[in-house]
Fold:
Amino acid sequence: MVPSEVVIERPRRWDVPFGEAMRDEDVDQLLDLPPFCDMDPQAFPSALPLRDLLKNDTRINHYPEGSIVVREGDYGNSAFLVLRGNVEVIFSGLDPAILGRQKTDKRGFLRSLVSMWRSPDLPEVRKQIRSQRELVADDSSEVDDLTQTRVFLQDVPRVLGSSRTVSLKPGEVFGELAALTRTPRSATVVARGDAWLLEIRWQGLRDMMSRTPALRRHIEELYRENSLRVHLRETPLLAQLPTDVLEAVVAATKFETHGNFDWQANFEPAQRMIPEAIIAEPLIAEEGSACDGILLVRSGFARLSHHFGHGHRTIAYLGKGQVYGLAEAIQTARDGQPVMMGNSLRALGYVDLLRIPQAVLDQYVFPNFSREELAQVGTKYATYGIQDLPYDSAEDSSKIDTPLLEFLVERRLMNGIQAMVIDLNRCTRCDDCVRACAATHDNNPRFIREGQRHGPFMIAHACMHCIDPVCMIGCPTGAIGRETASGVVRINDLTCIGCSTCANSCPYNNIQMVEVRDTSGAIIVDQATQQPIHKATKCDLCADQVGGPACQRACPHDALVRMDLGNLGELSAWVNR
Amino acid sequence: MKSFASRRLRNSTLTIAAMAGVVTYAWWSHVRLGHPAFVTGYLLLGMLAFLAAYNIRKKLPIVSWTTSAGWLQVHIYTGLATAAVFATHINWRLPEGWLEGILAAIYTATFISGLVGLYWTRTVPVQLARVSEEFIYERIPALRNQVRKKSQQVVLETVRATGRDTLGNFYSSRLEGYLEKPRGWYYWLKPSSRLRKRLLAELTEVTRYLSVPEQQASEQLFALIRRRDDLDFQAAMQWRLKIWLFAHIGLTYPLLMLACLHGCLAHLFDGGLP
Structure:
């Protein structure tokens, strides 16, 4: 007979400290240092005192000479404050092998087979149950944690060579860009000599920022400055410019943010009023206005639209690295008088942009290109601005009909890097995908074969591992996070306290809260309230399986695919198979 | 990304070439007084075993070196190629004897069920996708029940509110049976929208005798009748996709067993197994 209940204490924020528990003396010392000594403890509520934030959302890490603090390309959920020693920020891409990147631990066939064989019959059985007093013991396969063995750069001066580096001294902050924008780290940071750093979990950083205007301004300023420099270096148009010219462009470039960073909060109402939604979106540049430079998308998405009848027709959406207005800017430079913009640009949710004024382009950028090169660049970035296409963009991307584009944009589905798209014209509803998912997740399917439809295409309720994973906003324990290197968003079951914040934040309803059982099958309930303990669950893209997502591999009819909906070229190729 | 058309062309070409190779070999062996039946027999048995193995692959989603779709492609074209191997094996004549006759009949039934399945898996999804809403097969009975309850509620509320029984009478005489009972076996074999159209037409006829509140209720009934019909259609077509697979797999195992028995007997009558 299956026991009915197991009583434990409900897990809470800070049950599991960020790292080694901070001592009171450490916290006292931190409170004497800037920027914490400038913070007003009275500004923090009694339930969330500054002292507790420092004690639970920060940790002091020691980095010996040459050890890597953060690696370019990794996803990070924390910022760093240099306490003692120096660190070197390396901007140019280093060889991944030098950075010590390792493959994710994958299960082999036999291990997967045994795991499948031993799957419990009951749903959501947990082999490890953590109560408030029990800390995480060993779960190296879960979301990465800096308690792992450090990676060192051997022979630092030789490796750095002529790389462009910046040295950071005590009191300086770095890593806030990735922590606050849910984007990959833009540079590698290495300890020079012995360095002691305070690592601040982004949840804690957010709480401190919201109650300390000076810190918020300081971080935002750093963020703007770093974002601007890093992004301009990544832009193909500017990559070839001589350093002094690039610096002039950097100095003249403006940083803009449009829309709401917490866009998911009012996403659903906008979805209900679809015909008016486009008008409600923040207008960045209007069709018919005079061209005054170009806009580079740094993060987020923007909708490119054109007047049609009494409304606006979506032409495309622009994501990171894409450019608005380049063709018009080139023509303006050629004609010597401003050209009218061909399309409007509006923020979808939120979008970070870099604006390079026309005068700067005329003076510094365009003179470095021949007329032919400019014409080529102009064509490539005209209207669609789609990059990374395996073929000529404009013609093939136009094979996606406008209603499909509108459907993806209105529902913000272009946010998905690994969206589950099902071609209902080929799907036989056999549910092999669901069974495969269950078989690889202890008999618990991590998606539902239901979802929003456009014609024969369905975007199923499976985690899309979004470019902008808004589900990570507000997780009090950092249980949900990006996995190192792969970018897969995963939930650490052991540190999830079942607060439902991620499930409520996900605009696509792709995270499910489930009641969990112990190995005997008993539902686990909270000692205090006698209510069941919940855990957040979602698709993990079969990160521990050798062949990738089991759902896609199990579909017999090529009906199901995991796809980057931000890449119109990939979508177009799949739709027109 | 390769198009389905180019994949089909490539696979068909390879299959036809392989089939031609087997037929040529059998002819070549036969004219040299050889016994191609043993070679083609083992080849056929091997192909059948491989075809049956697809079901095992489907049960093991952890297999990483192949996708189910890739295996199905090989399964389809291998299955088609068995026709040429089988015909060559029986020397293009009808088999004699009970065992061979039954074996041939089961092979033919399995082959035809495969062809029918291939046709249905390519045509039925398109029909299902035309329905505006997607329904999960297992949930359809519960959804039907919801439709029935909702329509009953709409009619009862209207009758109570208006004090008129025109809509109530129509519901009890024409709609109640439709919404309560499952569709007949003929519908499951050949779903059609005739009954839905007839009921909608009858409801339209009745509407002229209804008061404004009753007309509003009848609008809801129109939608509920359509939804019930969509549910029935989805149930019937999804059932069709499931039942053919059940039949196809069900035929595979007796076919394999009989084929093995036939092989043993063939060796015994040929002078014993080596």
The mean pLDDT of chain B is 92. The interface with chain A takes residues 1-4, 58, 60-65, 67-69, 71-72, 121, 124-126, 128-129, 134, 136-137, 238, 241-242, 245 of chain B (CB under 8 Å). DSSP finds nine helices and no strands in chain B. The two ends of chain B are 49 Å apart (CA to CA).
